[in-house]
Amino acid sequence: xxxxxxxxxxxxxxxxxxxxxxxxxxxxxxxxxxxxxxxxxxxxxxxxxxxxxxxxxxxxxxxxxxxxxxxxxxxxxxxxxxxxxxxxxxxxxxxxxxxxxxxxxxxxxxxxxxxxxxxxxxxxxxxxxxxxxxxxxxxxxxxxxxxxxxxxxxxxxxxxxxxxxxxxxxxxxxxxxxxxxxxxxxxxxxxxxxxxxxxxxxxxxxxxxxxxxxxxxxxxxxxxxxxxxxxxxxxxxxxxxxxxxxxxxxxxxxxxxxxxxxxxxxxxxxxxxxxxxxxxxxxxxxxxxxxxxxxxxxxxxxxxxxxxxxxxxxxxxxxxxxxxxxxxxxxxxxxxxxxxxxxxxxxxxxxxxxxxxxxxxxxxxxxxxxxxxxxxxxxxxxxxxxxxxxxxxxxxxxxxxxxxxxxx
Length: 408
What we know:
- It is an enzyme of class 4 (lyase).
- It comes from Streptomyces botrytidirepellens.
- GO terms for molecular function: cysteine-S-conjugate beta-lyase activity; pyridoxal phosphate binding; transaminase activity.
- By secondary structure, the chain is an alpha/beta fold.
- It has two domains: 10-58 and 304-404, Aspartate Aminotransferase, domain 1 (Alpha-Beta Complex); 68-302, Aspartate Aminotransferase, domain 2.
- It contains 16 helices and 14 strands.
- The protein has helices spanning 10-13, 29-34, 38-41, 61-72, 87-99, 114-125, 140-148, 169-179, 199-212, 240-244, 253-256, 271-278, 290-302, 304-328, 356-364, 390-404, and strands at residues 48-49, 108-111, 131-136, 152-161, 164-167, 183-187, 215-219, 246-250, 264-268, 333-334, 342-346, 366-367, 369-370, 381-385.
- Strands 2-9-8-7-6-3-4-5 form an eight-stranded mixed β-sheet, with helices on both faces.
- α14 (304-328) runs parallel beside α16.
- It is globular and about 60 Å long.
């Protein structure tokens, strides 16, 4: 692929047509629908899917080449990892190269995915009935995990301001004090709003965590999908105190479209938690697949050029979503995401009698996500996945417009 720098939408570049990139904008819909993965398979042939957080783009060539090489070498035996997988060093190198954070490789452990990472930390650090602070709206499997594990979710609502979504630190302070919770699940960059916390905001959060002696479980899986001028800062990188109280969760799966490889990493800041984790039976929580390690290493080592093109396409698409909403659906409230490939859209001003997800499905032929599974205050919201080709996105936006055209 040819690297394209800082592409923008047609209206901002002055060109008559938006940029198209091979490998991203030449998607074959028969190929998309023929895949067995849930995004296109579950909705069936009559709906355009823009719901689950998978991208439509093919796997990065660096990853497919590495996987093909492993299979062709018949290198599928037991791995020789006496000191842990190569991901430990690869993660530490990635954090240094990307963010200047010296994350110790010896504090990294592998898991199959981020949900398992969260569940393991909650199992080790909390007990049923314990309160856990969490931003709302939030990733539904995280909220479902708290419920299933019997932890009391203490919602910290994100604030919708004229400048965009903001974290309410006063509400967090008050809620932590009232509930006595000692754990905060931080999602930054935030799913579903796309907000990226600034350094001053993170420092305020770190001071609050120190004041209340909070363990911070920081989900940073969207960190490599941030749009300039915004910048991701790992929470644990702020100070030695913050590092000692932070568990960082991440994976290459989101930024390189590799969900099925089932491979994630956890960086343990607290000594006690790392010791508890290592005292568990070694295979109690499963072991990561060697092919998952191969794919992740390849993505982090050789996938940056592909990822830059990806961000060019996603930046164009997020601007296109904003353009259509402003021009054709001005009653829907929306802030252009600072990260992720997810748009969080407030349909409450329309006063619909049915959930907007259902309206878009029936009247627009598009399957979106949203509503109550995202937590307190999420009813009336839509989450739209714009990680697709220009042509597919245009049809998704046409369906969205069609669904609400009688209401605006």
